[in-house]
Design brief:
The complex is a heterodimer of chains A (325) and B (135).
Chain A: E1 5-7, H1 13-22, E2 25-29, E3 40-45, H2 59-106, H3 115-145, E4 153-156, H4 158-175, E5 179-184, E6 191-194, H5 195-211, E7 218-225, E8 232-239, H6 261-267, H7 273-283, E9 288-292, E10 298-305
Parallel strand pairs in A: 5-7
Antiparallel strand pairs in A: 1-3, 2-3, 4-6, 7-8, 8-10, 9-10
Chain B: E1 8-12, H1 16-27, E2 32-36, H2 39-48, E3 53-57, H3 65-74, E4 83-87, H4 92-100, E5 105-108, H5 113-126
Parallel strand pairs in B: 1-2, 1-3, 3-4, 4-5
Helix pairs in contact in B: 2-3
The chains are: A alpha+beta (325), B alpha/beta (135).
Chain lengths: 325, 135
């Protein structure tokens, strides 16, 4: 039983401990590794009186007890996701009203506004829309976490998605005077995946690339057959931005991770974007990773199953991330 | 159309602040507005006085937006009234179902009010609108 390891979010530790102890187990803290941002525990039988003294000492019963405890913990997790969904909905409604009133005022429907008033209203609307985007991100995360998201795979060309996502970001790219290039390898096969999820992932990576690249820089989207994963298409999003310390390359794909205060301040995000991207990519059997140095720009990669390989998919399911960088 | 020639919009939205905001928006833009907070009230008001357009929030407390659209479509007096669906979150299955059910458009809140005001006359003119996707 000691090979069961749990990673527990700070606030949940007491509840997890209580559920397990009621069932006759105990949480033993495991040595903390650099790569785990959360405390890890090992679940052990509560052998306070040298094993046999426990009233439910026999093996089958212990397994049953542990299964019940795990089920209860899973329910807690679903309840938490449901709570997040409800909260997100409740937050969206008043914000929608604020945005609508803001636009009514901005457009002079209730009377002339001066240029400076208009500027103030624009700024208010912009902030509200940013907040709405963050709420949407939390909602998406909660749905993915509750397994409420299912895949709807279809066959499509990566170029279509690249074009659609580029169009969505065109005004931002223009505002920051960034160079943009899409480089699709000739003869690129179509992929079989959930188109909306792929667009979400690409949109997230391109959005980050734009955010983290100073005015006048370059962002690039490229797609080609993967050398190391035959049967997979590799999509890359590159920028000439601030880069990411290699020590943080795994951390950034974990939920609620913001690499440091500086990054958080510039990025003003929820810290969920890349965690969602990773979930979406891994749901489809792909992998996602980053190559970057501080000050040297970043290159994010993810893989999608090429159509010719779809029948035998899974043969090259990614190994653990880490060696990529 | 009302006596003053202002098109009548039936605004179906359960959130009072959003309904109030849209009422101001539409009234100040030359429409007459009739508000409903539930699906049942919406159908009742529409049958009593068929509007020129229905703005239909999909997250209603008493029933789904789709069943309100269905009820309006199946009554002769409201069968051809254009319906614009408003939703809190984008869902392509729901979008397809509503467009197939004859909704003129499917808009995700918060909608760009300028774009909405530009599009409304077109929906009304088309009367029995052919489905148009819009984000």
């Amino acid at each position: 039983m000691s090979d069961l390891r749990l990673w527990v979010q700070g606030g949940d530790e007491a509840r997890v401990r209580a559920v397990l102890e009621r069932e006759g187990f105990r949480l033993a803290e495991s040595p903390r590794s650099d790569t785990d941002p959360l405390p890890a525990f090992t679940v052990e039988p509560d052998g306070s009186e040298a094993g046999s003294a426990h009233p439910r000492g026999d093996g089958a019963r212990r397994v049953e007890d542990l299964e019940r405890a795990v089920l209860e913990l899973r329910n807690l997790d679903v309840a938490k996701s449901q709570f997040l969904t409800n909260v997100s909905h409740e937050l969206r409604t008043p914000l929608t009203a604020i945005v609508t009133y803001g636009e009514i005022l901005r457009d002079g429907l209730l009377g002339e506004v001066s240029p400076r008033q208009r500027e103030a209203i624009e700024s208010m609307i912009g902030s509200c829309r940013q907040l709405l985007g963050m709420i949407e991100e939390i909602l998406t995360y909660a749905r993915t976490n509750a397994q409420a998201i299912s895949l709807r795979p279809s066959e499509f060309g990566v170029d279509e998605v690249v074009q659609a996502v580029h169009e969505m970001n065109a005004s931002l790219i223009e505002r920051k005077r960034l160079g943009f290039a899409a480089q699709l390898a000739p003869g690129l096969p179509p992929v079989r995946a959930d188109r909306d999820k792929v667009a979400h992932v690409l949109g997230n990576l391109l959005g980050n690339a734009i955010d983290f690249t100073p005015d006048g820089g370059e962002v690039r989207v490229a797609a080609r057959r993967s050398d190391l994963n035959p049967g997979w298409v590799e999509v890359a999003v590159e920028d000439t931005g601030i880069g990411i310390d290699p020590a943080h390359h795994e951390l950034i794909f974990q939920e609620f991770a913001q690499v440091d205060a500086t990054r958080a301040r510039i990025h003003h995000g929820t810290g969920l974007g890349l965690a969602i991207a990773r979930q979406f990519v891994e749901m489809q059997g792909g992998r996602i990773w980053v190559e970057s140095e501080m000050g040297g720009g970043s290159r994010f990669f993810f893989t999608l199953p090429a159509v010719e390989a779809a029948a035998g998919a899974g043969g090259s399911v990614p190994s653990e991330a880490g060696e990529a960088a | 159309m009302t006596a003053a020639g202002r098109p009548l919009v039936l605004l179906v939205e359960d959130s009072e602040p959003i309904r109030a905001a849209f009422t101001i928006l539409l009234e100040e833009s030359g429409y007459e507005v009739c508000g409903a907070g539930t699906g049942a009230a919406a159908v009742r008001l529409a049958l009593a006085r068929p509007p020129d357009l229905v703005l239909l929030d999909l997250g209603l407390p008493d029933c789904s937006g789709r069943s309100v659209a269905g009820a309006l479509r199946s009554a002769p007096s409201t069968a051809t009234v254009p319906i614009v669906a408003l939703t809190g979150r984008d869902d392509d299955v729901e979008r397809a179902a509503l467009l197939a059910a004859g909704c003129a458009a499917y808009l995700v809140k918060p909608v760009d009010t300028q774009a909405l005001l530009r599009a409304l006359p077109g929906y009304i003119a088309r009367e029995t609108a052919s489905p148009v996707a819009d984000t």
